[in-house]
Amino acid sequence: MAADDSVIGPAELLGRWVRDHALAVRGYLLGITRRHDVADDLLQEVLQRAWQARDRYRELGQERAYLLKIADRLVIDRCRRLGLEINIDDATWHEVEPTIQTAAPLDDLVGAETNEELAAALAQLSASQRRVLLLRFFSDMTFEEIAETMNCPLGTALSHCRRGLVTMRKLLMTSE
Question: How far apart are CA 63 and CA 113, in angstroms?
Fold first, then answer.
């Protein structure tokens, strides 16, 4: 809970989590599972678990990072149970990417082309590299939070990010 949660009621806290973070958490879950039904189920479970643990939660970072940590653990468990591959394809990337707010149609075309190139480059990364990059850039988590979420040493999270970015840079440079 944030520092001011002692003065707001439980309904306001849950409302804030849903209003401020549910879309990002669902986007992350959809990006990993590629299934709307699974992402929706997992989002509900994330919010339920966060709500049940609200008394034990202490503000150590961002609320979104807290919810994404729960989401990451749940999605990894669910994917293993269902035999789903942790991967992101072009169609899913377009569903979870932030929308582009431009006035000019030409800008929209350039943005769409860039997003396709980005999706293709992301698809060529390892699952660990994609996961780190999504957590870092889509969810704005720190590397310490990513390492804790992925249950790996900080250096491993950093190296996955570095290798992923180097690979993406090479892929994007060759597509120009």
Answer: 33
**Contact predicate 115/34, CB 8 Å:** no
Separation of alpha carbons 12 and 122, rounded Å: 37
Q: What are the percentages of helix, strand and coil residues in the chain, rounded to 5?
A: 75, 0, 25
Contact yes or no for 59/2 (Cβ under 8 A): yes
* Cβ(26)–Cβ(46) below 8 Å: no
Question: In which band, very low, low, confident or very high, does the pLDDT at 105 lie, cut at 50, 70 and 90?
Answer: very low
Residue 161, pLDDT score: 93
Q: Global pTM?
A: 0.57
Q: Please tell me the distance from the alpha carbon of residue 147 to that of residue 168, in angstroms, as a whole number.
A: 21
Of 87, 99, 97, 100, nearest to 35 (Cα)?
A: 87
